[in-house]
Structure formats: structure tokens, C-alpha cells
Specification:
single chain, 656 residues, 22-stranded antiparallel β-barrel, 3 helices, globular
Length: 656
């Protein structure tokens, strides 16, 4: 069967209903096992990523309450991920939401690759996960897991076409080289389309794209206990202009004086070694990557050539992760210890030409990270589990540019938790954490007193209730949280020559999220979620003007978000799905002025199709109401990144 039916059963308790091959979006809050009695987790949705063609982290975050992606549509430059009010700054701050592929963490959202190919499942964990993962997931963790080959040859070919001259192909093949010893996986994706923006002067749609992706792996298992995997991927994005327009115009109308371009290349390789012992399991992951971005854009958004900006960036990333964990899943005492070491070398060059006045900035930031972490879990009584964790972080950063500087940060991050099984299908849980992300340097500061920013620290209390009722036909997870954040990092244009990260003295945030899944019949199901985040500056003053932002809403954090999907799967092979994803009012500047505010909006999408044995045909439509909105706004350039307009397409898939 090509596509798995929706599964509404939680990880814990009853068996998960699924047909292979299955890809899963799940939500969990701890690293331990698949038994809900052994960890604080909630798994509410199992869905076919192949059928819905979910290919990047934005596709995932719009289905997870209180986890949002604000995309600048500039090859990753300026993208912001927020989780319960914790964000990354667009350029210079460390990420609050960490993305990892097969255990390999990515240094920041700019390097995060799209166009996932052979994906088995995606797991999302909201809240700090630093006591169980190497690169510090200060606000949330998104883990992507590729499909693993077996002794049977498997493959997939998917053809995609639609409006705006969209055409694409995705394919993968995996299987044995030598049964029970050597396996391979090879896949790739190609996608091109015309742009979404109308440009009357240029006579073409300037934001066209062409994406090429190739990935592969070789797996060796010399013994029953030892497995080694070598994996790599290559991305080449050759796009037209960023999808930016003036906030004073229609989001899909461009008036720039030239087209511009976005070029992004990512090369990544890794080696993963896993040893399963009688007492403990060991995992070692070594990874090396290079990402390059070349970006050119007209930032005055006028027909006259007044402002030409050219950005070039490079990120080299080397990481080593080692984890040791208990191997006896049946034991009342579970544990994990880990070590993470990484080096990030970021180089940026910005050249701007404004009315013939040329300004050229160049910077380089080196970051060395080391972390020791661990979690313990103990079944104290029959229905009570206790959890404790810790993390010790060391970050050393060096700035090279207009001036040189360096800084070091040490952080001790503890975590305590408890889960109580109130009855067989109902559990309550609570965690308290103290987490931090390091300070650093703003590479585009001309004043050395403005270049350095301090660490951000968050104390968080989380409580929740999870249930699976009526033979798991109804599942829900309700979580409430409260955080006090010191040194909240805000990135902005402070002066015409200084683009820097500032620290707000204190921010408070609280809210809740609800995930629900309902099996109405064997063929019809509902999934939904709602998230609310109340976040305010308690103490924050503009160092340039003295203006107080107390009581204002920090940028990039929607007030609320919601998701609802209805899915129908008939025994004859017919299937249909409709989704509605809403994002509440969002501020894009700490002043909260109306020009930097995006009102609430919702996106309706649907698909219908038919599958027969190994074949599937899907007709889909995105943004069916043709909602006009900006995915992000930039008050400094008076521009916004427009969302996608309404478009339709068809996808044919063959899998074996």
C-alpha cells in the first residue's frame, strides 16, 4: 500500500494502527521509549507525508500549535522560528528551535534544507529539550528521520505539475547490496516554477525558482550489535528574486527596478555509529556541512534604481555527538548521557549601493560549543514516574570584522518532571526547567559598544493532561506553560549603520496549546489544534532613543494559531482531505506600529485522489480563498515577504 491511513492512537497504550510505508508527525516532550508509561509524551497524529507532500519544516510547524515559522522567502535569510514566544533572531542569535535530520543538528534556520525526500517520520517536541539533545533546543526540537532500507528493494517516483508552470519529480530507491550486511539509499528531488509576483515593468514573474536535491546513504552492519551509516546530501537552489514587495502595495505586485536573485548551496555529510550492548547503547554522530548563500535585491521597491543590496554568506559547521543510554526498556530506571561539540564558522558580506553611495561590510563569527547533558527517569510507584535532567553548556564566540572581540558563556540548565497515570487512559504531567541560549556578536555593528549582546535565560513551568478514550478513537493533549525570560534577544536596525541584537531586561510569557484527534468512523477522522501565547516586554528601553517598549509584544510571535484537518479514506481507494491553518495577529517590530503588524489570516487547502495498489493520483489546491497576506514584514525597508497565492496542481505517485 502506497500511503498509510491516518492513525489516531497515541504512542503509549494501544498499538498504533498503520500501513507501511508510514511517515509520522508526532509530538513528544521526552527522549525515552515508545511506552507512555515510560516517558512524558503525546503522539496525536500519524499522517502520510508522501500523500500530502510535506517537504520542509514550515509544512510541519503550521500543524503544531504554538510553533510557527515566519519565512522571509530569501533562501533562509531572515527566517524566524518561534516556540511559545522563544525565537531566533534573523541573523546573529542562536536558534531557539533546533532542527535535526537523522540526529544531525543544523546550525540555524538559514542552513535548514527543504525538499525532504525519503522521510519516515517527523517528531516535534515543544519546550526546552536541552537535557536530551546535543545542540541546545532552547525552545523546541524538530527531528526529521529518513527511511531506513531493509532486505527488500523499495522505491518511489512522484511527478508533480500545476499552475505557474510548476513541474517537479521526486524519487528514491533503497534496498540491500548484501543481505543482512550492506544496504543503500539514494534519492532526489527537482522542482521548478514561475514566480508568484506580478511585475508589469519587467514583463515576467521575478520570483521564479529551481530546486535540485540529491541525497544518499550507505549502511553496514558487521554484527548484530554494530551498525555504521555514511550519509550525505546536496542542495542547489537557483531562484529569482526574493518574494518581497512594498508593504504599501498588493502583496503579489512587485515594482522593483531589477529582478534580483537567491542562490543557495548546501553540502552535508555524516557518519553515524550505533552499538547496542547488553547494559547500554551507544550512538556517535559526526557531521560536516557547508552552506553558501548569494542574495541580491532592490530594497527601495521603486522602478528607479535607488538601492541595490548584495549579500553573500557562508556557514561551515562541524559537529560531534556521542550519546549513551540504557538498553533495558523494561527497567523501572532509564537514563541517557550525552556529549556535544561543534564549531560554526560564519562569514558574511553585505554591499549596498544607495544613490551611488557604496557601503561594504564584512564580518566573520566563529562559535565553539561544548555541552554535557543527561536525563534520568524512575518509576517511583506503579503509576508515578519521576524525571530529572541537567545540561552544562560552554560557548565561546569570536568576532572578526570592523573590530575583533570574543566572549565566553557557561550555563547550567536543570530540569525536573513528574508524570502521574490517573487512570489507564488519562495522565497528568508537569516539568520545570531553567534554560539558556548564549550571547554573541552582531557582525553589522559599526559601534563596538553595540556589537556584543548577552545570553538569554528562561525559567519555565509546564503542566499538562493527556488522554486517549473510547478505544483510542478520541485523543487529546492539553498543555499550559509560564515563562520568565531575562535578556530576551531582539534584533533590529538601531541606527542607519548599526544592525544589532539587543537584550530586553525582562519578558513574561504564558499560554496553552491543545492537540485533538477524533476518529469519527473507520474512514473519517479529524485532527486539530489551538495554541495561545501571551507575551509582553516587562522592561525594555530603546538604547538609541530612550523609548520604552514596556507592555509591547515582541516580534515574530503570533497571539494564537489554530489548525483543523478532516480526512476521508475509503476502502475503494478514494481519499480526500481539507485543512485550514490560521495564524493570529503578529508583530514584526517591538514598537508594535501598524505598518509592522500582520492581521490574523487563514489558509484553506484541500486534496482529493485515488489509490490503487502501488499507484496514487492526487489533485490539490492551496490557499483556496486566495488570502492576501505577508508572511513577514520588515519595518526598516518597508517591505514584506508575501505568502503564496491560490494555485492548483496534480501529483502522480508510484511506489513499490
Amino acid at each position: 500500500m502506497l500511503i498509510a491511513l491516518l492513525s489516531l492512537r497515541p504512542i503509549g497504550g494501544a498499538e498504533v494502527l498503520q500501513l507501511e510505508p508510514t511517515v509520522v508527525i508526532g509530538y513528544r516532550s521526552s527522549w525515552l521509549g515508545d511506552d507512555s508509561r515510560a516517558h512524558m509524551s503525546n503522539h496525536l497524529e500519524a499522517t502520510a507525508l508522501q500523500e500530502q507532500d510535506l517537504v520542509d519544516f514550515e509544512d510541519v510547524t503550521q500543524r503544531v500549535p504554538n510553533l510557527r515559522t515566519q519565512r522571509a522567502h530569501s533562501g533562509g535569510l531572515g527566517d524566524v522560528l518561534s516556540a511559545r514566544g522563544l525565537t531566533n533572531s534573523p541573523l546573529f542569535g542562536s536558534p531557539s528551535v533546533v532542527i535535526a535530520v537523522d540526529g544531525v543538528s543544523l546550525p540555524n534556520p538559514v542552513v535548514a534544507w527543504d525538499d525532504w525526500v525519503a522521510i519516515e517520520r517527523v517528531e516535534v517536541a515543544r519546550g526546552s529539550q536541552g537535557t536530551r539533545f546535543g545542540r541546545n533546543p532552547y525552545g523546541a526540537l524538530i527531528e526529521v528521520f529518513r527511511k531506513q532500507p531493509g532486505n527488500v528493494l523499495e522505491g518511489l517516483v512522484s511527478l508533480d505539475g500545476g499552475e505557474y508552470a510548476r513541474s517537479g519529480v521526486k524519487a528514491w530507491l533503497m534496498g540491500p547490496l548484501i543481505a543482512d550486511q550492506w544496504w543503500f539509499r539514494l534519492g532526489g528531488r527537482y522542482l521548478e516554477r514561475d514566480g508568484y509576483l506580478d511585475h508589469a515593468l519587467l514583463g515576467k514573474r521575478p520570483d521564479n525558482l529551481r530546486h535540485r536535491t540529491l541525497e544518499g546513504a550507505l549502511i553496514w552492519k558487521p554484527t548484530d550489535q554494530l551498525e555504521v551509516e555514511w550519509a550525505g546530501n546536496w542542495l542547489d537552489y537557483h531562484d529569482g528574486s526574493p518574494r518581497d514587495t512594498s508593504i504599501f502595495s498588493d502583496p503579489w505586485e512587485s515594482t522593483t527596478s531589477f529582478q534580483g536573485h537567491v542562490r543557495r548551496d548546501v553540502d552535508q555529510g555524516s557518519m553515524r555509529v550505533r552499538y547496542e550492548g547488553d547494559v547500554a547503547n551507544l550512538v556517535s554522530i559526526t557531521a560536516l556541512s557547508r552552506s553558501e548563500l548569494d542574495y541580491r535585491q532592490d530594497l527601495d521597491y521603486l522602478p528607479a534604481p535607488l538601492n541595490d543590496t548584495h549579500v553573500h554568506g557562508r556557514v561551515d559547521y562541524l559537529s560531534q555527538d556521542v550519546r549513551v543510554e540504557s538498553s533495558d526498556d523494561s527497567s523501572a530506571f532509564q537514563w541517557q548521557l550525552g556529549l556535544h561539540a561543534s564549531h560554526i564558522d560564519t562569514e558574511g558580506s553585505v554591499r549596498s549601493d544607495t544613490l551611488g553611495l557604496v557601503n561594504h561590510d564584512h564580518y566573520r563569527i566563529e562559535e565553539a560549543l561544548t555541552a554535557f547533558y543527561g536525563e534520568w527517569r524512575w518509576q517511583w510507584k506503579e503509576h508515578v514516574w519521576l524525571e530529572a535532567g541537567w545540561r552544562l553548556d560552554h560557548a565561546k564566540k569570536r568576532l572578526h570584522g570592523r573590530f575583533d572581540d570574543e566572549r565566553e558563556d557557561w550555563h547550567w540548565q536543570p530540569k525536573l518532571g513528574v508524570q502521574i497515570e490517573l487512570r489507564e487512559s488519562l495522565s497528568a504531567y508537569s516539568t520545570v526547567t531553567y534554560a539558556a541560549k548564549p550571547g554573541g556578536f552582531s557582525g553589522l555593528a559599526t559601534d563596538p559598544t553595540l556589537a556584543e549582546f548577552e545570553e538569554e535565560r528562561a525559567f519555565t513551568l509546564e503542566c499538562g493532561l493527556r488522554a486517549a478514550c473510547w478505544d483510542d478513537a478520541f485523543s487529546f493533549n492539553l498543555t499550559a506553560f509560564y515563562s520568565e525570560i531575562d535578556g530576551y534577544q531582539v534584533e533590529r536596525q538601531l541606527t542607519p549603520l548599526d544592525y544589532v541584537v539587543l537584550n530586553a531586561e525582562r519578558v513574561t510569557t504564558y499560554g496553552a496549546e491543545l492537540d485533538v484527534a477524533i476518529a469519527l468512523t473507520e474512514s473519517l477522522s479529524l485532527q486539530g489544534g489551538f495554541g495561545y501565547t501571551h507575551i509582553r516586554f516587562d522592561a525594555f528601553e530603546d538604547p538609541a532613543t530612550g523609548e520604552s517598549f514596556d507592555g509591547k509584544i515582541p516580534p515574530y510571535v503570533p497571539e494564537w494559531d489554530a489548525y483543523l484537518a478532516i480526512d476521508y479514506q475509503h476502502d475503494s481507494g478514494f481519499f480526500a482531505r481539507a485543512e485550514y491553518a490560521c495564524t493570529g495577529r503578529t508583530q514584526f517590530h517591538e514598537s508594535n506600529v501598524s505598518l509592522a503588524e500582520e492581521e490574523s489570516h487563514g489558509i484553506l487547502s484541500a486534496q482529493v485522489g485515488w489509490r490503487k495498489e502501488d499507484w496514487a493520483l492526487t489533485v490539490y489546491g492551496e490557499n483556496l480563498t486566495n488570502e492576501r497576506y505577508f508572511a513577514s514584514r520588515n519595518l526598516d525597508t518597508m517591505s514584506g515577504a508575501s505568502g503564496e497565492p491560490r494555485h492548483f496542481g496534480v501529483r502522480a505517485t508510484y511506489a513499490f
